[in-house]
Amino acid sequence: MMTISEALRWGAESLNESCERPQFEAELLLAHHLGKERIYLVMYADVPVEDFEVYEALIKRRAAHEPYEYIVGEASFYDIHLKVAPGVLIPRPETELLIDEVANIIEREKLTSVAEIGVGSGAISVVLARKFPNLKIVATDICDAPLRVAGENIEAFGLGGQVTLRKSNLLDEVNESVELVVSNPPYIAEDFTLEKNVAAYEPKEALFGGRAGDELLRQIILDVKARGVKWLACEMGYDQKVPIERFVNEVGVKSIAFYKDLAGFDRGFVIEFA
Ligand SMILES: C[S@@+](CC[C@H](N)C(=O)[O-])C[C@H]1O[C@@H](n2cnc3c(N)ncnc32)[C@H](O)[C@@H]1O
Predict the structure, then answer these.
(1) Where is the domain boundary, 49, 64, 79?
(2) Core-most of 29, 94, 120, 121, by most CB within 10 Å?
(3) Are residues 263 and 130 in the same domain?
(4) Which residues of 233-267 are buried (b: 16+ CB within 10 A; e: fewer)?
(5) Residue 196: its pLDDT value, please?
C-alpha cells in the first residue's frame, strides 16, 4: 500500500501539467480524501493511504482540468464555504466586491427588501442575508441546478426565512416590490475564448451574455427601471464600462458609479434611478 508521502509524490507528479501548484493541490485532495486537515499529512507521512483508488480518481479528474471546487463539491467565498456542483458557477472572489457595494447601500439607506437575478450557488444572497438578519431577498435563476444547490446552501445556513428562490427569467416571476436589485449576470461575449477548465466544465448559461456580452445587463437595467426600483448593482466585464455608460445615458438614470476590482479593472456599477 502507498504511504501518504508516496501518494503525495505520485499526485503532485500527475498534476504537473494541469495545475500551477501541483504539490499544494495534491495535498488538498489527499486531505479531502482522508477527511483530515493538511497538517495531518505531515504528521503521518508514513501511514498507508486507505482506498487509494478513490484518491487516484480525484487526482485524475483534476489532471483533466476539472475545477478543484467541483471535485470536492465546495467553494470558499467571502467568510463561508458554499456547496457547488456541475451546472452551477463557482463563485469568484471579485464578486465579494459587488457584495460590499450592495452592503454599503443597504446599511446607509436602511433597506429591507432585495431581489437577486441569477442566484447560482447562492453566494450573493447567502452572504447578504447573513450580514443583514432583517433583510428579505427573492432570488431567481432560469436553470434548475443552481436553484437546487442554492436551496441547499440557504438551508445549511438556516436562511430559509429570509431568502426565497424562484425559477424565473430575470424578474419576470417576481411580483414583490423591492428596493434594490443585485446581479452578477452572464456577461461574456459569445466569441470570447475562455480558459480550458472554465470552458469545458462551467455552465454556459452562467457565462455568456449574448453576442456582445452585455445584452443581459442592458435588459436588466431596462427591467429594473421599468419596475420603479431605486437601486441596481451589477458585476460586469472589464471592457463594458464605455458601452454601459453610453446605454445608461440614453435610458436616463439619476446616477451611475462604476467600481474596480483589486487588479484595477472596471468590474461593476451601482445605478440610482430617479
Ligand atoms: C455568473 S452566474 C452568477 C451566480 C452567482 N450569483 C454568483 O455570483 O456566483 C449567472 C447566473 O445567472 C443565471 N441566469 C442566466 N440567464 C438568466 C436569466 N435570463 N434569468 C435569470 N437567471 C439567469 C445562470 O443560470 C447563472 O446561475
Answers:
(1) 64
(2) 120
(3) yes
(4) bbbbbeebbebbeebbeeeeeeebeebebeeeebb
(5) 80
